[in-house]
Design goal:
The strands form 2 sheets. Strands 2, 4, 5, 6, 9, 10 and 11 form a 7-stranded mixed sheet that branches. A 4-stranded antiparallel sheet has the order 1-3-8-7, with no helix packed on it. The chain is mostly beta strands and about 120 residues long. The protein is about 0% helix and about 50% strand.
């Protein structure tokens, strides 16, 4: 059973920075695509950033140039560095591990609130 444990959320002022972490209990972590998603109140869950086994990355247009996804295959951990945060970045952030086309695993979510 794959488990994903997120940390690093919290309350931050606009233009501040936060780093989210997600550690996976899974063998051969390096083979899997990892992603960060977010869900704001009243909205659908949306992709924020993704990194594959080759460390290729992709980002939502709304976070390009501000957020950076990275991974440490020794620590089985994926990170999301969030800079220049805006109130509209407020959401619950979820870590995702894509094992196959039909097998996705999710973390429990971590709240990020951007407010003065």
């Amino acid at each position: 059973q794959v488990q994903l444990v997120e940390s690093g959320g919290g309350l931050i002022q606009p233009v501040g920075s936060l780093r989210l972490s997600c550690t996976a209990s899974v063998n051969i972590f390096r083979l899997y695509t990892m992603g960060w998603y977010r869900q704001a109140p009243g909205k659908q869950r949306e992709l924020v950033a993704v990194i594959n086994s080759g460390r290729n990355t992709d980002y939502a247009d709304s976070v390009k140039g501000r957020f950076t996804i990275s991974r440490d295959n020794v620590k089985n951990t994926v990170y999301l560095q969030m800079n220049s945060l805006k109130p509209e970045d407020t959401a619950v952030y979820y870590c995702n591990l894509k094992m196959t086309t039909f097998e996705n695993f999710w973390g429990q979510g971590t709240q990020v609130t951007v407010s003065s």
